[in-house]
Each structure stands twice: as C-alpha cells, then as structure tokens.
Design goal:
The protein is mainly alpha-helical. The protein is built from three helices and no strands. The chain has one domain: ACP-like (Non-ribosomal Peptide Synthetase Peptidyl Carrier Protein, Chain A). Helix content is 43%, strand content 0%. It is globular, with a radius of gyration of 12 Å. The model has no long low-confidence stretch (mean pLDDT 83).
C-alpha cells in the first residue's frame, strides 16, 4: 500500500505503457480499465475502501485520473478519521 499522500506519478508510471504528463489522454498513456482499478486499489490506504468506478466515466486525462485518485485518498482518510 502507498502512504498518504501517494506519489501519483510513480504509481501511474507502474501501469502506463507510454510517457505521460497531466494532459496526456488515458489511452495514449496506455492505461486500460483494469490497470485503472488496480491503481485505485493500490492508492487506497485501506483495503476496505469502497472504490466508485462510476467516477472513472469522467476521467479522460492523466490529470483527471490524479484528481479522481486524490478523491479516493481523501474520502478514505475522512472515513478513518485521519483527515
């Protein structure tokens, strides 16, 4: 598990198959739906964190992905009282 706050660039790089920056489209970075879910599980601090995959519908770029992942971490911290 990653610590909070996670190094999202490093975590994403583990699953990306191409170079990326925040404006890179998810597909251009080589990220697929299964890798996005694995990334979410890795970033979540608690294995019981509920991951709302419906939020991925609006994720188009790596920057969008970072915002979504940060929301997972923030929600998890609030649920555990760590916020």
């Amino acid at each position: 598990m990653l610590t909070t706050p996670p190094d999202l660039d490093s975590a994403i790089a583990q699953y990306a198959t191409a170079d990326f920056d925040d404006s890179t489209l998810i597909q251009e970075a080589g990220l697929e739906s299964l890798s996005l879910l694995r990334l979410a599980v890795e970033v979540a601090a608690d294995e019981d964190t509920e991951i709302d995959a419906a939020g991925l519908v609006d994720v188009r770029t790596v920057g969008d992905l970072k915002v979504w992942l940060t929301g997972l971490v923030r929600n998890d911290a609030e649920e555990t009282g760590a916020a």
